[in-house]
Specification:
Blueprint (H helix, E strand, L loop, with lengths): L1 H6 L5 H6 L15 H18 L3 H22 L4 H5 L7 H10 L2 H25 L13 H8 L4 H8 L13 H17 L9 H17 L6 H5 L6 H9 L4 H8 L1
Helix pairs in contact: 3-4, 3-7, 3-9, 4-7, 8-9, 8-10, 8-14, 10-11, 11-14
């Protein structure tokens, strides 16, 4: 996220710091790589600067998210951190040491990020130059922007989050609404205490743990959007229609509380 924002010469310091807890695939649970979460949020910020708020901005952010997911998968064969690194929050000290020391995991992750930033910039620009076709279904187009608005954030942040819909770019991965809620709660703390270290902040970690616990209770212990919804969305119109039927509203209300 930081790399893309600086390519566009629009740094968002606090928003970038708030993405840190999504590293390791949502608080180290091993789902979508934090690089991908950050890239899609940066694409949403770019869409807001180009289009303001509304259906067009959200639709373009979702389209960019879809393309960013596809690019990341082509580069790494998977979008999930655990598949790439073979570690998650349940890994032991030896497994972590093997990856980061013997396998130079930190360097490999950094090189992976640098390669992805270069390609992600072109992916976002191509996505926005080819305006996606969508019906004017009205809001909400995105579960994540709907959640963001219920949490009372700015239109910038709502559009930034919109591309995380449907498990990030409608790919069906770990719930984008959960990631959005964790990101926004981290952002709130940083707005009050800009120098806070979220990964060591007790208030943030307690809130994040509570969010994940409530989320898993309501989803029957399922993290991934495709498992929760029992489907994968092909495009923004399918997702918007699903939301209009009232689906996921209870989940969104739970995360917004």
């Amino acid at each position: 996220m930081r790399g893309l924002n600086r390519v566009y010469d629009h740094p968002l310091e606090l928003e970038e710091l708030a993405v840190v807890p999504l590293a390791g695939g949502i608080m180290h649970h091993g789902y979508q790589c934090g690089t991908l979460w950050g890239a899609v949020l940066a694409a949403g910020a770019r869409s807001f600067r180009m289009n303001g708020s509304g259906s067009k901005a959200e639709s373009m952010a979702i389209a960019a998210g879809q393309n960013l997911v596809n690019t990341f998968r082509r580069q790494n064969n998977s979008i999930n951190c655990a598949d790439i690194t073979s570690i998650d929050r349940n890994s032991g000290a030896l497994e972590i040491a093997v990856y980061f020391i013997l396998k130079a995991g930190g360097l490999r992750c950094m090189l992976r990020v640098c390669k992805y930033i270069r390609d992600a910039f072109h992916v976002v620009e191509h996505s926005f130059s080819d305006t996606p076709q969508f019906e004017k279904t009205g809001l909400p187009l995105s579960c994540t922007s709907l959640l963001a608005r219920q949490m009372g954030v700015s239109e910038l942040h709502a559009v930034m989050a919109s591309g995380l819909a449907g498990g990030i770019g409608l790919c069906g991965g770990a719930c984008g609404a959960l990631g959005t809620a964790i990101w926004i709660n981290g952002l709130r703390i940083l707005q009050e205490r800009p120098h806070a270290n979220l990964m060591k902040d007790k208030t943030f970690n307690n809130k994040a743990d509570d969010l994940i616990t409530a989320f898993l209770k309501i989803t029957d212990h399922r993290f991934e959007c495709s498992e929760i919804t029992q489907r994968q969305f092909k495009n923004v119109n399918e997702h918007a229609a699903y939301l209009k039927e009232g689906n996921c509203l209870k989940l969104i209300e739970t995360l917004a509380a």
